Amino acid sequence: MNADKHTPPILTALFIAVMLVVFGGLALWNYEHDMQIAEGNLRIPKWNPWKEAIVLKEKKEQARVDSLKLIAIQDSLSKANAVRVSVATPGKGIIEFAPNDSIGFGKLMRALSKAKSGRSVRIIHFGDSQIEGDRITGDLRNALQGRYGGEGPGMQPLVPFVSNANVSHSTSGEWIRMVSFGRQNDKSPTNQYGPRGVSHRFIGGYASVRLSPRSSGYARAKRFKNFTLLYGPPRGSLEIKWFANDTLWQTTYLDSIPYTGAIQISATEPVKSLRIEFRGVSPDFYGISIEGNGGISADNIAMRGADGLSFTRMDRTHFIQSLKRQSVGLVILQFGGNSVPWFKSREAVERHGEAFRRQIRLFQEALPEADILIIGPSDMAYKNGMSWVSYPYVDDVRDVLKEAAFKEGAGFFDIMNYMGGTGSMVEWVNARPQLAGPDHIHFTPRGARKVAEALVEALQEELERYE
Prior knowledge:
By secondary structure, the protein is of the alpha+beta class. It is built from 10 helices and 19 strands. Helix 6 links the parallel strand 15 and strand 16 (371-375). Helix 5 (316-323) crosses helix 6 and helix 6 (346-366) packs parallel to helix 7. The longest helix is centred in the N-terminal third of the chain and has 37 residues, at 49-85. Residues 29-55 and 68-83 have low confidence and may be disordered.
């Protein structure tokens, strides 16, 4: 007679416990290896409680580090934004942005990082007579070339209206100057002026231009290696002879074609004198760019008498295409002074501000990868009886240009505030040595240098935010 036998529960529990210990031990011992059985592997779940604890600890530490980095970044951005919304104080120049602008000169900084690696980056400085002769631009160019590389004085007119501090020009033949901002009888019949808004044409079948570095000026700007001659659609045959150091270097020919173009020639070492001879039918020449091998090029484009509103009056397609020929990191628009004396009402000033916004938008359309800096007018004074007083709307013009800059995402540098506000022009004229001339409008060379140094310092402070 068979009786049912039951395994005591204690033995079942003991068996399960022993198996757990055995497999747990095998898993721990076999964490990095599979057990070999005959010709195969016995794969056992791998578990290491100590390593799991270490990994968990490392994850917590990394999370803590990431949290600290995030706090640091937020603190940095908070400080940067505090700089952005700060108000410029008299005697201290800063580049201001709209309070909600967290980007600033990010585009320019990206371009400058490329310049460090040897690529060419262009700065275009448009302005009125305050920048003639490479004033302000020259100091800015030298600072940027010293920091990011580059040589040469940038874009030059074939026939300068005012001599340049770095380039000696001489010409022969009869030249016609056409400008986008001057009197009606100075205009081009095509309304095309190239990237400078100024073009030249010779008549009579022959002309020449000679360029050489001046003894004065900055060393980097006086190194001439690469030359790019910009021209409009040729209207007939033209022979161009290039002479380097009075030796024939190259001869090029143009024939009648309906396109604008550029002739580029390069030297292996700096050229001390360049002469260009033209024989034939002249096209419109938009300028000649003089540069080094990569780095920063900065153009000084002075438009005497300009109100800063002529860019949208030119052939739009042509102007945009002419700007796109090279990588531009920054466009500077320094205007306002020529309009100040003519305003009779705040409403007229407001209309001027809206028209100026359209100029900014044009450059943004043409150069979407470039930043834009607006430089406001200086203080300006006129004789009222026996006293010199600031023009009635000079601060209003400054305000609408600043508002236009902020609305369009551009930076703003306030020269008038840097000078000391309204009434400061008289102080600059009476300073010893003088910082402004007796016309109470234009800076002396010393005054222009003072403004340039403030602008350079402000730009460097802004760029350091990204480094």
